[in-house]
Amino acid sequence: MSRIALVQQKAVRDRVDNLRRALLAMEEAADRGAEIVAFAELAVDRFFPRHAADPSAADLAETIPGPLSRAVAARAQQLSLVTVFNMYELGADGRKYDSSPVFDADGRLLGVTRMVHITDYEGFHEQTYYAEGNRGAPVYDTRVGRIGVAICYDRHYPEYMRALGVGGARLVVIPQAGTVGEWPEGLYEAEVRTAAFQNGYWTALCNRVGAEDELTFAGESFVVDPEGRVTARGASGEEDLVLAELDLDACDRSTARRLFWRDRRPELYPEWLI
């Protein structure tokens, strides 16, 4: 068994304070027995894509490694925590990405997942800020097991979620920025539960929380087992540290792994879904 902690944290206007509280949350997670910790989308920044053009946002983008990611890596190493973070990345190519660096329990950077699908609608003007991710759907070998990341909008794409399963993920972490009422008739949650059930892995969605101008983020982070059942849920509208036990060996016993994957016909599928 492994224990995961989801840091459901408000972002105030003081980025230094946001980072300070994030690092303290990692300490609390470790104190409460967590081996894995995950953060929401843009964990220590206000959600700047709520505006179509915010010139100050450019100053928030950092390279990975960089000051922000090094601070998180150092705390991961200190606390022996596998850590899935999320931040605004300045790539070596000069483009900017919505990115999740993944650190092993010894603080090593295992890789960086970049959001692949970029949306644009009222309150979520992400195409203004993010280039499309160009690293596919990587899965990382961590001390606790194989972990993939689906950043926010990517969770809507079954082919992306399947690619993480094909890559051997036993846990898919979803850094999220979801507002109050964004789960229409439960469908947004249902698709995450369906992905877990169809692919036979755990999913852990860590959501933002709190009011930021015209947007109010809901919290309500949740964890789903490989049979599609919600096993833990965060507070609504409040900061929370959501803890859940993960039996990663349950992936091998799941309906998907016993039946669906056994009867797949990959010879008939597009090459990238094999």
**Share of β-strand residues:** 25-35%
Q: What summary fits the major beta sheet? A: 7 strands, mixed
| Global shape | globular
Give the ordered list of helices and strands.
Answer: EHEHEEEEEEHEHEEEEEEHH
Counting H and I runs of at least 4 residues, what is the number of helices? 6
Kindly name the structural category: alpha/beta
Q: Which stretches are low in confidence, meaning pLDDT under 50 for 5 or more residues running?
A: none
**What is the CATH fold-level name?**
Nitrilase/N-carbamoyl-D-aminoacid amidohydrolase
Question: What is the CATH architecture descriptor?
Answer: 4-Layer Sandwich
Average pLDDT:
95
Spatial gap, N to C terminus: 29 Å
| Tally of structural domains | 1
Tell me what the structure shows.
This protein is α/β, with parallel strands linked by helices and 274 residues long. Helix 1 packs parallel to helix 2. The protein starts with a strand and ends in a 14-residue tail after the last helix. The protein is globular. Strands 1, 2, 3, 4, 5, 6 and 15 form a seven-stranded mixed sheet that branches. Strands 7-8-9-10-13-14 form a six-stranded mixed sheet, with helices on one face. It has one domain: Carbon-nitrogen hydrolase (Nitrilase/N-carbamoyl-D-aminoacid amidohydrolase, 4-Layer Sandwich).
